[in-house]
Prior knowledge:
The chain is mostly beta strands.
Amino acid sequence: VHGAAAAQIADAPGDALAIQVTSASTESWHVQVSVAGPDLVAGERYTLKFDAKADRPRGGGTTFNQSGPDY
């Protein structure tokens, strides 16, 4: 959680996370969840699958980033 955003992130039953954003920010990346995974190989094809739900309509997104320089 960064900037003016505020959120609580906790483990939930199964392989789930419960994320409650209590104060949003003007930047979408100010609340984010990072999950370590396998190293990705250039030229390979990958499939990402997950379920998400919310208590009301909300926006969201998914990105893959390197966790250090050069982002």
